[in-house]
């Protein structure tokens, strides 16, 4: 009832959990869907815990607040701990197994463990764990096209500083690589 | 124009710019600081005025200054910051100074916290400032509506020469969703008949909030209350969501109303006749329409992020036509679709039971 897809993206400040959500929402707008993004806000800082709730739907999204999400992307261990119970039964959770060694607690959801930080080392540096995770999420759900996110990245690159715009190729590489992780099942057991 | 993904706070700021806001005065406070940031970035290059004031008191008194010249101007703040502005709002009503105030509520009382809340319904609607006065209060529940109501706030302020408040909360201020910036749709009234513009070749004018001669203040108060009656007649707005055959009607404003919609939709999918009555204008409150709704339904459930504030206006409008229940969380606790749905199910079961008992008696 929260729309066609609801996802919570969580990590520590600096990992880009909020930005991954913004990319997702912009891509939803590109595809003519309705979407909401609601962040934890305020006292968050680099190193602190941050998360955002994203809804994507063909129809209206009445509530930006999510009871249970179809998916959770946990970029670190604290996020896994905090949001494991928020995944809908039958839903899935992407866990960054580079930064979380916690045992999983549920049998009614799927876990996709990806050593995001290790895998990111294989790419042109800097590479982005948030964008890699987003690529994996989109490949898994097919809720939006990877191409739509790339379109958004290209548009954004036109409006940001030259220093940030120079990272566009790295972002494009990261999202493609994220998708390939799911296709090639580069996940940990 | 195409829809763009925009944050509530920034949507309000851009809408104010589109509405012709010439001056912004503000002091930063979470969860609305993006409004000031946005204004600071965009107003000066347009040759308009942006001032980071030394306090909220200064902000609103600058707003009075701009308003007396008939200039479209705005300030914004949150909860404890708005509290500091209330003396000036009373003065603005008395002196009939237009101005737009954006209030993005956070948890209170006191400095409280920065989480979304609706604890400032009383603050906005019932005073703080002294004397008999009312400010127009508009309550958006989507980012799109935040844009549309910001336009309306600027228009109503000039139309009625009264402060207008846009009452939002941290959810709406911080969330993003796609919305469209249409053109400012209103034709604003001429201000040259009353605005202070230097008295070049005309008799001097006064815009004051002190009236010492006997009877003058009474006359003025009666006159501004006639104005408030006109405002109630012309401007009352509410949204009817599945009310036509509802047995249970929910009343809610702002972001809570949209969360309630998700629960109403689910209740409808499960065969429960539930609807939503959402006041868009809080003053003027849609009391007559709510009373008519109350006569048709078996029960009203009022939902708020506080301990029951709009509840008083709901009860006063319902005036005994049906029972009124309240469900809310104060000071930063959020209502989720699940919580609201559970409350609906619980109350609806009681109504069903009452129906069956009644049938049995017959």
Structure characteristics:
heterodimer, A: 189 residues, alpha/beta, Pyruvate-ferredoxin Oxidoreductase, domain 3, six-stranded mixed β-sheet, 7 helices, 6 strands, globular, B: 362 residues, Rossmann fold, 2 domains, seven-stranded mixed β-sheet, five-stranded mixed β-sheet, 13 helices, 43% helix, 18% strand
List the helices and strands and how they pair.
The complex is a heterodimer of chains A (189) and B (362).
Chain A: E1 5-12, H1 17-30, E2 34-39, E3 49-57, E4 69-74, H2 77-83, E5 87-96, E6 110-114, H3 116-120, H4 129-141, H5 146-157, H6 162-165, H7 168-183
Parallel strand pairs in A: 1-4, 4-5, 5-6
Antiparallel strand pairs in A: 1-3, 2-3
Helix pairs in contact in A: 1-5, 4-7, 5-7
Chain B: E1 4-7, H1 8-18, E2 23-26, H2 33-42, E3 49-52, H3 56-68, E4 73-77, H4 79-83, H5 86-95, E5 99-105, H6 121-125, E6 136-138, H7 143-160, E7 163-169, H8 170-174, E8 176-179, H9 216-235, E9 238-241, E10 248-251, H10 254-269, E11 274-279, E12 281-283, H11 287-296, E13 299-304, H12 310-318, E14 324-328, H13 337-361
Parallel strand pairs in B: 2-3, 2-4, 4-5, 5-7, 6-7, 10-11, 10-13, 13-14
Antiparallel strand pairs in B: 1-8, 6-12, 9-11
Helix pairs in contact in B: 1-2, 1-7, 10-13, 11-12
Describe the structure.
The complex is a heterodimer of chains A (189) and B (362). Helices cover 38% and strands 23% of the residues of chain A. Chain A is built from seven helices and six strands. Chain A has helices at residues 17-30, 77-83, 116-120, 129-141, 146-157, 162-165, 168-183, and strands at 5-12, 34-39, 49-57, 69-74, 87-96, 110-114. Chain A has a six-stranded mixed beta sheet, with helices on both faces. The longest helix of chain A is centred in the last third of the chain and has 16 residues, at 168-183. Chain B is α/β, with parallel strands linked by helices and 362 residues long. Chain B folds into two domains: 4-235, Thiamin diphosphate (ThDP)-binding fold, Pyr/PP domains (Rossmann fold), CATH 3.40.50.970; 238-361, Rossmann fold. Chain B is built from 13 helices and 14 strands. In chain B, strand 10 (248-251), helix 10 (254-269) and strand 11 form a beta-alpha-beta unit. In chain B, helix 10 packs across helix 13. The longest helix of chain B has 25 residues, at 337-361. Chain B is globular and about 80 Å long. Chain B starts with a strand and ends with a helix.
